[in-house]
Amino acid sequence: MxxxxxxxxxxxxxxxxxxxxxxxxxxxVYVDTGALYRSIAYYAITRGADVxxxxxxxxxxxxxxxxxxxxxxxxxxxVNGENVSDKIRTxxxxxxxxxxxxxxxxxAFLLDTQRSIAAENDIIMDGxxxxxxxxPNAQVKVFLTASAEERANRRYKxxxxxxxxxxxxxxxxxxxQRDYNDTHREIAPLKQAEDATLVDSTSMTIExxxxxxxxxxxxxxxxxxGSKKKSELKCSDRHKPVMEVRPITKTHKINPIRQGFxxxxxxxxxxxxxxxxxxxxEGVENVPTxxxxxxxxxxxxxxxxxxxxxxxxxxISYMAKEELFKQNIFFTLLIKAWGAFPVVRGTGDTAVIDTxxxxxxxxxxxxxxxxxxxxxxxxxxxxxxxxxxxxxxxxTKVVPVGINFEGEKLCRKKKVVVRYxxxxxxxxxGTTDASPKNLKILKKEIMNSITELVH
Length: 455
Ligand code: DC
Description:
Strand order of the largest sheet: 9-15-14-10-13-11-12
Mean pLDDT: 88
Structural class: alpha/beta
Low-confidence stretches: 231-239
Largest sheet: 7 strands, mixed
Distance between the termini: 58 Å
Order of helices and strands: EHEHHEEEHHEHEHHEHHEEHEHEHEHEEH
Bound molecules: 2'-deoxycytidine-5'-monophosphate
Number of strands: 15
Strand content: 15-25%
């Protein structure tokens, strides 16, 4: 029975040096999972993809084979057969790796590779989510940390020795940015597993930290059933949810003051909108009469949240980019009154997921524009995974919506057709948890349904 040691922690905590030392002392294989994320970043860049665009990164994965191998005892990483071990160690790739690691498609892509190595060898594997997601049954879990300043200091020395011109301040800023990215992403964020041992290496030598891990491994080896935990894990277990499911209760009634306000304002706004546009609706029978549903729509104009909500009996909430709240006070009050809450685009912030679920729990409907941005030509773009993640975690229905008008801009007297499609129920689809595979299925279903409603 092989022994697995999961070593997680922030950038620059000394994980790789310490893990190599432990591996040498114990005769284990060292697996540097950061190199896998770096390789994807490297490949995405060489293929001309924007690493800040999840859809572009996901699109290049089909043509990619990443393999870990060992050349003269050292780990080497091969991208479609090319040894990229040195090329992936630049500050640019570090930041790009942090960016690509937040996409569920990327994490799902690497999961089996990591698990199959662990299934076959005594290993020490370092990364961010090894103890929490990749090897939740590892016999030894360590969370290695150190102060940001100490980590920057170490990284700065390492880079200077290689002739890199970065200053200490730049390295520290980089470390802080990556810490923020790694701990705030939606999927598998960096965090200490509940059963991990915390090792703070700020004032420890490499030897001391390595010896502490060796001691933990030996303690497991001495137990007669020490390696039992790991046998429960199958390497093809792709169903590990990326976030815990928290089905919302549909019994929540909306705050009566808000509902009363909405009952008065909605007919008034409808009157104005019908006067301004040639507005018509199709599929209104698909709009649920209760709240707590997601409306996923293509995005054409700032009027969309109003178009969608005019046929819902309970008020909506919707995500709006943060910049919209800084334009002018009148506009801010208007969109807030209509249910807007701010989201910082591209951060993958888990707080947005929590806020969204709170809104659904409070009985409101939640409007999401999965494309993330408005489409000028009316074509439906690629969707982001957030909508599927919220639906899967909350286990609530998604009503697809298609907003149609000709031309680029919404202007007076324009003919606007809003179509509601049949609600998609995650339970009926069999997507009862938020595993990467289920998120993919759910997202595909949502985006296909929206596309069918746009014509
Ligand atoms: O450990 P590293 O600096 O080489 O990792 C590069 C990036 O990859 C890091 O910013 C976060 C990401 N990563 C991850 O998300 N999960 C892992 N298991 C390993 C690395």
